[in-house]
Amino acid sequence: MKSLIKNFYSKNFVYKGKEKLSKLTILFIFFLNVFIFITLGLGIDFQIKVLNNPQVTFSSTCRTIINSNSVDDFNSYFYLSKDYNSKYQNIKNKEMDKRCSTLLYTKLKNVKTEHNIKTLRTNQKRVNNDLNKVSNELSYLRENYNTVLFEKMSSQESSKSIIKDKISSENIKLKYNLYLKENEKLKKEKENLLKQFKNSKSVRELLTFVKDNKKQIKEDYKNLSKSYDIKRELITLLFLLPLLLISFYIMKRYLTNEKYTLYIMFKNIVVVIFIPTIISTLSLIYILMPKIFLEKVLKFFYELEVPFIVYYLVIVLLVLIFGYIIVKIQKKHREDNRKLENNSISKIESFNKNICNKCFNKIDYKLMNFCPNCQNELKIKCNNCQKETIKGLNYCMNCADSIKS
């Protein structure tokens, strides 16, 4: 399998010609890649829009209420102030699950008709503010009770008292009891606000509806989401695969005809299309892959109260995968460098630029026999004239006889 992939790569993605691309050509190929990548994204997005999105079938409001544990608390109904009759609401209603449309436009409408949510929240805010004031007064009286007693024992005049509101030993108890009664009254008022809302007909009907449908709607949404994800990836692959195959075929033709520039251009296009294709393929595999074993492993570590081990394992796995890739890339790089060392073209270029063809250090071929940086041999003796000539060149610089090094 490994040799098969290697042969496929070398036959289709390795060009053995001598032509080089100009910097301007490379720049335009780069821009072409960017534009194609953006266009692919727009095309995939357009294709996916034809699918029935589960977030339309089960709207966010529907899912919020179904997942809520406080349906009977009017503080959870702040979104009722919004108007759901949007521009495309009629289209959305046709795609929406009937249970959700019933929930949104019947049950919630009944709650909104029977109760003014804004007024309820305003009243609750007022009661809370009053409760805070009374609680502060009670705390103040408790904290200063001993001070009042000391003032009485010293027969201090009330005008010189350090306690506010002319509180004395005679009226402190009375004021304290009045505030206690006020506190209880406000608590009861707050409780009644919640109770009246909770026990109302519309809210009880909504609560019953949620309890009866909660489990099934959650299950249906989960199944629909999985089905949507599978369809999305399949549509993406159906959109990308023809482009990938056509681009690969054209690239192969240009490689066969030795049209280097066009080959490189389509080679880049193939890579650009291949990236979202492989991502979509992996996503599809992940969606279809049974996750029972993975869930059990995660549950096992959580029960051991050491969930961080899971992250350690992920890090180890990533290190192994990327470490393998990095080592392979570096190995190929070393092999390419060795090939370049024995390549006559690279040796001619090195001689013309006065650099070592092994380590690329700056050298002088006329004065030096070895590279001072890597000990690479620069000169050899000519078999014909027995004089030193440049190693790696085809002919002796003294007698022009052919050299094999």
What this model shows, in words?
With 405 residues, the chain is an all-alpha fold. It contains 13 helices and 2 strands, in the order αααααααααααααββ. α4 packs across α9 (201-256). It has helices at residues 2-12, 23-48, 54-57, 60-67, 89-95, 98-114, 117-153, 172-198, 201-256, 260-288, 292-303, 308-341, 344-353, and strands spanning 379-381, 388-390. Strands 1-2 form a two-stranded antiparallel sheet. Mean pLDDT is 80; it is low at 80-85. It is elongated.
Compact description:
The protein is mainly α. Helices cover about 70% and strands about 0% of the residues.
The amount of beta strand, in percent, is under 5%
Indicate the low-confidence ranges by residue numbers: 80-85
As an assembly, this protein is single chain
Helix/strand/pairing category: mainly alpha
Q: Please state how the strands of the largest beta sheet are arranged side by side.
A: 1-2
Task: Give the helix level as a range of percent.
Answer: 55-70%
Question: Biggest sheet: strands, sense, closure?
Answer: 2 strands, antiparallel
Task: List the total number of helices.
Answer: 13
Question: What's the mean pLDDT score?
Answer: 80
Work out the radius of gyration.
41 Å
The general outline is elongated
List its traits.
two-stranded antiparallel ribbon; 13 helices; 69% helix
